[in-house]
Design a protein that fits this description.
Residues 18-45 form a coiled coil. Pfam families: PPK2. The protein has a single domain (18-255), classed as P-loop containing nucleotide triphosphate hydrolases (Rossmann fold), CATH 3.40.50.300. With 271 residues, the chain is of the alpha/beta class. It has a 5-stranded parallel beta sheet with strand order 2-3-1-4-5, with helices on both faces. It has helices at 18-42, 58-66, 93-96, 118-121, 127-145, 160-172, 182-188, 191-205, 220-241, 248-254; strands at 45-52, 74-78, 105-109, 149-157, 212-216. 46% of the residues lie in helices and 12% in strands. β2, α3 and β3 (105-109) form a beta-alpha-beta unit. α1 packs parallel to α9 (220-241) and α2 packs across α9.
Amino acid sequence: MEKEHLAKVDLTKKIESKSKYNKKLEKYQMRLLALQQILKEEKIAVMIVMEGWDAAGKGGAIKRVTEHLDPRGFQVNPIGAPAPHEKRYHYLQRFWRKLPQYGQITIFDRSWYGRVLVERVEEFATKEEWTRAYGEINDFEKLLTDDHYIIGKFFYHISNDEQLKRFTERENNPLKRWKITDEDWRNREKWDEYVEAIEDMFANTNKPNAKWHIIASNDKLYARLKTLKVIISLIEDYFLEHNIELPSYYNEIKEGKKKKIESVQDAGVKW
């Protein structure tokens, strides 16, 4: 991945109509539900890493990804600052404890990449620590992908102006005001420093086994559909690469011949 790719992202991408969005959303969600059941049967774990600007829409994307999944087969881990007892260990220790079981899907809302983003910019980690972290993270992810894990890494990119618009809307809406903090406003003042950290993160951790996917997110509807589409492709590509044959009911769903899965049992999977 070349340098300065954030500037090359086309943030004008959008879904023109809500009806078109709803049709594609339903189709993608049904395919992902079917894939979830196949993952369970094949004992393959999926880790979805979501990073991005504040107010870029990670929460909305997570909701649409998980909305129709079987709750027994996925987990969402919101990641904040490490607790005092977690600081006594290597920074990756707390993530090891949250890995998905074989056959499960886990989403990380923020992740170990905080080491090379917020901890770098806010100087919670020394330059030696965050520089060393690139190699540690690559080794961590390679160890997992060598052992039946699929890793999808997403960065939700919005413009500076779009972020300001969303921050202002949150402040003016009593039901959303809890989403905005003084820290969010302070982070805006360091936009350029974060851009530099993000660029270095891509340059050092975009690997064939765990690629970054930059999601243009000025339009939330586009970002949600793109997220689902990429996740589906990652799983399908893994199955193809490892000669795992997709069952007939999945191909019927993909081709639009099967409109829905009645239940987990309908797919022949026992949880």
